[in-house]
Each structure stands twice: as C-alpha cells, then as structure tokens.
Design goal:
Length: about 400
C-alpha cells in the first residue's frame, strides 16, 4: 500500500514491495475512471517519481472475451450494487462532506476497483488450482480532508481477489479490500469503515434517494464505437453519521452527506479524449447535479460530455454538453508540480426551459491531489451563489493535467 499525507509543513510517502510488484502486474488499472470511465490522461512522467506513466498502465490492454456495455439493460436493486464479474472494469465510488459538533469541516473519498485479469467468457476464470489464483485484482483509493487541521491524506492498496484478502459478495452485500469495507449494500443502511494515515472513519450511510440511471437509461456512452461505454448509475444523496478517530486528538462525531457512483464496463478509450472534470453537486434546496466534461487535446469540451439534472421533486433529465458551460477561474499547483483548476464558474441551462442556473464551485482546500499510481485531483468543494453565499456542497475529480 501507499500512504500520503500533506499538511501545512508535512509530506510522507511509502510503498511496500508487494505494492510495487502489483503495480507492474495490474494492466490498465481501471484507468482511474471512478467518475466517468472513459478518458486517458496524457502520457507524462511524474516529476516526483512516485507516479506511473500512462503508457505503462495501459500497455497490453485485452478486451476479448469480456462483456461490453453495448446495449441498454434492465437494472435491479439492490442486486446491481453487487459485482458484475463478466466485465473487465468495475468500481464502487463514495464521496462525502462531513461536519463536526464545533463546526469542523471534513471530506472523504473511497473507491473500490475490481479489474478483470482473465475473462470468464473465455474460460480463464481460474488458471490453476491454488488458494491464491484469481481472475481479478482489486485496487482501492482513499482520502481524508480535514480543513481546520490543514490536513489532506491519501492512500492506495493493491490486493489480489484470493484467500479472502479482497472481494465482493454475490449477489450483493459487502465490498472489501483488506480491512477497508463497504457493507450492508443489500440493506437500507450501509456501513463504511476505512483508515487513512492516523484517521479512521466508521460511518453509517442511509440513502435518501433511489438510484438514478446516468446516460441513456444507464448506458453512458464515452467513445464513438459501440461498447465504448459503461453501465452507470448514481445514488446522489446519502445521509451520513458516525465518527472519525483522529490520532491523539481522539474521536470526533460527524454528520453529513455522501454520494455513490457505480460503473462497470470493458471500454476502449477514444484517442481524442485526454482527461475530464467531473462534478457531483448537492444543492441545499434538494437539487442534485452530476456533470463530466471530457476534454480534447486542445482543451475544448468533447461532444460526449454529459451529466444529469436531478431535482428533489421532479423527473431527472440528461444534460448534454451544450447545456453546460464550465469556466475555470482559479488554478493551483500541487506539491507534485501538477496544476489543476480549483475554482469554476458553472452555467447550466435546465432541461425544463427555466432560467439558467449560474454559480461558483470552489475547492475547500487547494491541495487535494491523490498521490496514487496515476496522479489526479479529487476533492471536496463548496457551491456559492453570485453573492458568494454557500448554497451547497459536492466533490470534483480532475484528470489529465500535466505538471507545469
């Protein structure tokens, strides 16, 4: 595993030999597509030496024999919260904003990735008799942001799906990578338990909305060819309560709101997509918005960018790329040297023809880069109106940005 922590004056990183070995074994590790499952960051070296070239991560991709997201399907819940082993890539992605009793502001992110190494359709589910044999590798990314403490920590793990080290119960129930777990997915309340550095989160999650299908009936097209897509849904509003252990500072009770995205696919990536900006936004008035902007090499939005308008008291609608204007207004360079936008103007033309919604999305802390196998920015954000007043919260994910 690898743990990374940043604060006012501290940075720490380390990786076990097993983690370094698995980095070389895992081919095309879900491509860090927790949000939109399609784009490839540009092939660049990490100047700090801790990252991986995208060419290495993507080399030798094999899709033969895996199922593809190439046609609409019927979704079934809670069954679809469970695994879909016929597909090469799959992830369970949870983000949240939390409050302590004295106004403490925290955020968290955890993603469980399943990566198929051998196709079940090709009869390669087990390549020899051994308790360690497995067709899958699991990867998990976690992060915690503690704004008042000036603290951001991230960690990643790589584990084989064998000997009980990682997996997903079928048909549905529990997802785990070692002692990090998301459990109770077949129940009305879920339990999330994981640690990052000296923070440990034990949270109860209670969905407040039914799953919302993204794209066209849950089929989210990312590239031009059939199958260049994922099956994708969101649980956009989840009530959270629990506690966080913060090392010597003891336990902190917290409440807040979370968001879960689920995707599975065997997609081939489009050559004219170099990265994306993804937003999961929860407005105080009850509106939820998801939008991802895929970027071309020249920085312009790709026409397959899309999202969803999800009111609390009306039908949800697909957002096309020409209904959303996204304009970065401030940038920040991370300790790694990578530079990301951290504040945006956003303008959305609602599908019902009402007046456009214009607001600002602002990171609660500039330094929220994930120091993982491929670097990306994943962080808690505030939503502000034209007067600078808070009107909601959310999370953003940014990929494909170079060091400057």
């Amino acid at each position: 595993m690898q743990a990374n922590v940043s604060g006012p004056d501290q940075t720490r990183a380390g990786a076990s030999p097993a983690s370094r070995l698995l980095r070389g074994v895992v081919v095309g590790l879900v491509l860090l597509v927790a949000a939109c499952g399609g784009a490839v960051p540009p092939e660049t070296e990490d100047p700090g030496g801790a990252g991986l070239r995208v060419g290495e991560a993507l080399g030798g991709e094999v899709t033969d024999g895996f199922r593809r997201a190439d046609a609409p399907r019927a979704f079934e819940f809670p069954r679809d919260h469970g695994p879909h082993p016929g597909f090469r890539n799959e992830w369970w992605y949870v983000t949240g904003n939390l409050d302590g009793p004295e106004g403490e502001r925290l955020g968290f992110h955890i993603t469980f990735f399943r990566v198929g190494l051998a196709s079940e359709l090709a009869g390669e589910a087990r390549w020899h008799d051994s308790a360690w044999a497995s067709p899958d590798i699991w990867m998990a990314h976690t992060a915690v942001i503690d704004r008042e403490a000036g603290h951001h920590a991230s960690e990643e793990r790589f584990v084989r799906d064998a000997a009980g080290l990682a997996g997903a119960t079928e048909p549905v129930g529990r997802i785990w990578v070692e002692d990090w777990e998301l459990a109770g997915l077949d129940q009305d309340r879920w339990m999330l338990d994981f640690s990052v550095n000296d923070y440990r989160l034990r949270l109860e999650l209670e969905p407040q909305r039914a799953p919302v299908l993204q794209g066209e009936g849950g089929l989210s097209q990312k590239g031009p060819e059939p199958g260049d897509a994922s099956y994708y849904y969101s649980v956009p509003r989840i009530a959270v309560r629990g506690e966080i252990e913060r090392g010597a500072r003891g336990r902190l009770p917290v409440t807040g709101a979370a968001w879960m995205d689920r995707e599975w696919s065997t997609s081939v990536l489009a050559e004219d997509q170099v990265g994306w900006d993804w937003f999961a936004l929860q407005f105080d008035a009850g509106l939820d918005v998801m939008y991802y902007e895929l970027r071309r090499p020249d920085g312009t939005p790709h026409p397959l960018s899309k999202g969803r308008w999800m009111p609390a008291d009306a039908d949800d609608w697909l957002l096309a790329h020409d209904q959303v204007e996204l304009e970065p207004r401030r940038w920040a360079t991370q300790p790694s040297g990578h530079r990301y936008p951290v504040e945006w103007n956003m303008r959305i033309e609602p599908p019902d023809g009402s007046a456009p919604h214009e607001f600002v999305v602002r990171a609660i802390r500039d330094e929220q880069e994930m120091d993982t196998i491929i670097r990306y920015w994943e962080g808690a954000v505030d939503i502000l109106d034209s007067r600078g007043e808070p009107i909601g919260r959310g999370f953003a994910e940014l990929t494909g940005y170079d060091a400057r």
